[in-house]
């Protein structure tokens, strides 16, 4: 039993070393450099990238982006930064508001109180 365990540990260590070398060779690391730093949009935020793409697809009518900005309590330009240029990530409350907005739009409810 100890021989099997040590063999399994050696194989796992070799695989870990291979993965570490592979990560070190890649030009962009997807891990954060320091604990507690802010996550930036990009490859390290695939869920946000997908959410932004879905929200943009739902902004179909003229003025939808301005109304969404009012709902989020942000200037239109910041909504553009969040969704199109993806230079910023929203806070948790605004992300939840976006999810609620998407749910309402998918159920054909008017999230802005229009009739």
Explain how this protein is built.
The chain has 115 residues and is an all-alpha fold. It has a domain at 46-106. Helices cover 60% and strands 0% of the residues. The protein is built from 5 helices and no strands. It has helices spanning 2-25, 46-58, 64-72, 76-83, 92-106. Helix 2 crosses helix 5 and helix 3 (64-72) packs across helix 4 (76-83). The longest helix is centred in the N-terminal third of the chain and has 24 residues, at 2-25. The mean pLDDT is 77.
Please give the radius of gyration in angstroms. Answer: 22 Å
List low-pLDDT spans.
none
**Mean model confidence by pLDDT:** 77
N-to-C order of helices and strands = HHHHH
What is the 3D form? elongated
The CA-CA distance between the termini, in Å, is 72 Å
- DSSP strand (E) fraction? under 5%
Sheet/helix structural class = mainly alpha
Number of separate strands = 0
Describe the largest sheet.
Answer: none
User: Helical proportion?
Assistant: 55-70%
Please tally the helical runs, counting DSSP H or I stretches of 4 or more residues: 5
